[in-house]
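Structure in, sequence out. Go:
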């Protein structure tokens, strides 16, 4: 028997059946991509650190002896002859410009400030950066820019020897997000099946992958198009030619990714942990601290930026990508330290006690749901997922006496999450709903949406009784006819 990594309960697997359902919605993690404790210990030991200590993160990247950040170096001076008269001014920001960028679109500001931002300026490598209507444009491409961090990095020594275009476009990709639950979206992208936690994303390389190497291509690219429509964090303007000389892109090439028609990947193989994020113009690395995710600001060092980006954008199976994931999950967490905090662990234990003490409750681990047979005979499904009116769970009626209910009754029903229920941790909240459904005949007084289901179940029973009676009558008629034939013969 193992100890559950979520709550500490003894379990045959690393994750008990309840934590496998509740950890993704509570923490946002997807347990399938969380590194093993042994892997975390090995990586942190290799970098000379101790788990759970307030270790300094960035010396780990500075001391890393490899050439994985050399791709940002350039000796090619910008071609000043491309400008008709003289080159534009260098890109800089003043206090007024920063205030406008932070405020975003929809505000009214002096025209000269807006014009100054729209006019923009050039970076040391000759690339051009502007801002308009709440969006940066890098050489004409809409791009997410950590403008506060960039200002400080440009002031560093040897800033004129950096290929800023490759670096900043790579950062844009690394900070892109694509909700993997969109892969299960319906035709119009509005059926959100929360199979994966909010702290994971599809690997940004999917923006550059050839269509021939993704299985179920049509559904995949349809979902990607919906992601671009509804999620502006995914930049589809970046092309292979913009980043093909980077180290991380060469690593994908080294895997011979898509080298043959037989080299196809399931979309799920691209699911990774979110790494870099831009907040208020600053670049951060997301790190797990205890049972919560925190943000660690990156230093104003383009070399460290390039190394972190290289590790983040490398193929999920690459050693550097796995090392970064282990550092994210383990450097600031102790061992053993469970994924859930103390209150959520108590909620899990409470729910487990209810399930184990009642034979009318069953867990479907594969689909992360709980079956509850009510006192009415209706079989209910409770799932920790976003439900009607933004509840933390969804409830639907499946069948009565093993007979499926009408399809329109099979949709999620509205169970209002009251303020008192909202204050409970997820395990306690779901346990409360499970107890209510066990006694659904009495609970319909307080949960009005249950009542129509119970009426439908009663009508279904009546129809079943009528059908059974009709079948019995038909059987009696056949028996009489058979006896009559026997007497005649």
């Amino acid at each position: 028997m193992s100890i559950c990594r979520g709550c500490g309960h003894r379990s045959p697997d690393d994750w008990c059946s309840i934590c496998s359902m509740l950890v993704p919605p509570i923490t946002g993690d997807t347990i399938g991509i969380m590194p093993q404790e042994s892997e975390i210990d090995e990586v942190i030991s290799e970098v000379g650190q101790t788990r759970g200590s307030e270790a300094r993160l960035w010396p780990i990247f500075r001391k890393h002896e490899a050439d994985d950040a050399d791709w940002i170096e350039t000796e090619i001076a910008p071609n000043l002859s491309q400008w008709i008269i003289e080159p534009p001014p260098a890109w800089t920001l003043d206090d007024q410009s920063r205030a406008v960028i932070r405020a975003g679109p929809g505000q009214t500001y002096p025209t000269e400030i807006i014009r100054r931002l729209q006019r923009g300026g050039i970076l040391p490598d000759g690339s051009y950066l502007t801002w308009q209507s709440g969006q940066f444009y890098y050489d004409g491409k809409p791009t997410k820019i950590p403008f506060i961090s960039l200002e400080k990095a440009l002031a560093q020594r040897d800033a004129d020897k950096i290929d800023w275009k490759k670096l900043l476009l790579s950062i844009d990709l690394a900070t892109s997000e694509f909700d993997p639950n969109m892969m299960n979206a319906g035709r119009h992208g509005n059926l959100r099946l929360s199979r994966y936690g909010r702290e994971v994303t599809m690997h940004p390389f999917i923006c550059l992958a050839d269509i021939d190497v993704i299985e179920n291509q049509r559904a995949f690219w349809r979902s990607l198009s919906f992601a671009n429509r509804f999620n502006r964090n995914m930049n589809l303007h970046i092309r292979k030619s913009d980043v093909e000389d980077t180290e991380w892109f060469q690593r994908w090439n080294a895997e011979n990714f898509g080298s043959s028609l037989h080299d196809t990947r399931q979309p799920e193989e691209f699911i990774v942990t979110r790494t870099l994020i831009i907040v208020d113009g600053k670049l951060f690395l997301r790190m797990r601290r205890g049972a919560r995710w925190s943000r660690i600001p990156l230093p104003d060092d383009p070399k460290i930026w390039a190394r972190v980006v290289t590790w983040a954008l490398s193929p999920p199976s690459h050693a550097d990508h796995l090392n970064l994931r282990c550092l994210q999950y383990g450097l600031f967490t102790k061992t053993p330290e469970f994924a859930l905090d103390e209150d959520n662990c108590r909620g899990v234990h409470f729910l487990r006690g209810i399930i184990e003490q009642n034979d009318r409750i069953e867990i479907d681990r594969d689909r992360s749901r709980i079956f509850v047979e009510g006192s009415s005979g209706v079989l209910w499904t409770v799932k920790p997922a976003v439900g009607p009116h933004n509840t933390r769970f969804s409830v639907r009626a499946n069948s009565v006496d093993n007979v499926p209910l009408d399809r329109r009754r099979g949709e999620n029903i509205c169970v209002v999450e009251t303020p008192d229920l909202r204050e409970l941790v997820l395990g306690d909240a779901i346990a409360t709903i499970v107890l209510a459904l066990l006694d659904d005949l009495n609970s319909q007084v307080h949960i009005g949406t249950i009542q129509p289901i119970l009426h439908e179940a009663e009508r279904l029973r009546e129809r079943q009784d009528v059908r059974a009676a009709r079948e019995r009558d038909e059987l009696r008629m056949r028996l009489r006819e058979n006896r009559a034939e026997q007497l005649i013969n």
